[in-house]
Amino acid sequence: MSLIYGIVTGILFGFLLQKGHVLRYDKQVGALRLMDMTIFKFMLSAIIVAAIGIYLLKDLGLIQLSMKSTSIGAQVIGGMLFGIGWGLLGYCPGTAVGALGEGRIDGLWGILGMLLGGAIYASAFPFMKAYIIPMGNFGKISLPQIIGINHWIVILIFAAFLVLLFRFFEKKNL
Amino acid sequence: MLRQPWNPYIAGGLTGVLLVLSVWIGGNFFGASTTFSRSASVIEEAVGVDTSTIEYFTTSKGKYGPNSLPNWQFMFLVGIIIGGFVASTLSGDFRIQAVPDMWQERFGPNPVKRAVVAITGGAIALFGARLAGG
């Protein structure tokens, strides 16, 4: 059943990604060059809607959240490497796959590269575990938790910020 | 509506709804990068590497090992290819293209150059994603 949910969800997601024009190298790299904000509009809209929905389900007791650990070393270094790779490839992992569905051959090269990256990371894991992941490791923490305020206030502030950001995008025609 | 592009705010907002439903119904958050680690273990195993000697593939009860596939996320990625294909065909956007327009303007039409950079970029991006935890 889980496999069927997976493929159905993937088809719908791939459809929305394509319809939002997110699967394109020009849009992805355009976002990184701060020339075209399509990707950010799509991504931030998805994040705010999902944040509201997920916390609603959590408050109603319908789901439980399992958070990932915060490690400054792993996330800062990993994030920077991800950014460099994203800029070179021009797709993130999910959109590389989707770009292949749109007929873009470089999506396939991206998939090959990512398989290679997966193998290299697996072999480098003992080193990462010993030296990088312990750097600034705070365990499972969330933003509302460390500030000590209700998560709905954080979501509200984030939503207000997005409204201003989106208005700015539209005013500047980004 | 099936032929026109959609406003990115609408498509993104619907993606948020889809994510909430996915978490609610099946407990699955969206992700992609782990599948490349898992697939790498399957490929390594297939070409004769003993993946049980690689700590990463045995950690957390073999969560990233060769027996972890197929799973929800793997099928999710297969679905993205299908969804992208269906939507781009309906919209008339489907096109076999080796070199993206923006790349070609700056770096020329050589498909090998594009392939080398894309493979390198993919490897670095995935390494970073796995290090950062997704």
List keywords for this structure.
heterodimer, A: 174 residues, mainly alpha, two-stranded antiparallel sheet, 8 helices, 74% helix, B: 134 residues, globular
Count of helical stretches of chain A: 8
What's the alpha carbon Rg of chain A, rounded to whole Å? 18 Å
Q: What's the count of strands of chain B? A: 0
**Major sheet: arrangement of strands of chain A:** 1-2
Oligomer: heterodimer
Question: What is the arithmetic mean of pLDDT of chain B?
Answer: 96
Helix content of chain B: 55-70%
How helix-rich are the residues of chain A, as a percent range? over 70%
Tally the beta strands of chain A: 2
Structural class of chain A: mainly alpha
What structural class do the secondary elements of chain B suggest? Answer: mainly alpha
Q: Strand portion of chain A, in percent?
A: under 5%
Shape verdict of chain B = globular
Series of secondary-structure elements of chain B, N-terminal to C-terminal: HHHHHH
3D shape of chain A: globular
Query: Which pair of chains forms the biggest interface, and how many residues does each contribute?
Result: A-B, 101 and 92 residues
Unreliable segments of 5+ consecutive residues of chain B: none
Largest sheet of chain B: none
Main sheet properties of chain A: 2 strands, antiparallel
Q: Report Rg of chain B.
A: 18 Å
Which residue ranges of chain A are poorly predicted, with pLDDT under 50 across at least 5 consecutive positions?
none
3D structure, described in words:
The complex is a heterodimer of chains A (174) and B (134). By secondary structure, chain A is mainly α. In chain A, 74% of the residues lie in helices and 3% in strands. Chain A has eight helices and two strands. The longest helix of chain A is centred in the C-terminal third of the chain and has 28 residues, at 105-132. Chain A is globular, with a radius of gyration of 18 Å. With 134 residues, chain B is mainly alpha-helical. Chain B is built from six helices and no strands. Chain B is globular and about 50 Å long. The mean pLDDT of chain B is 96.
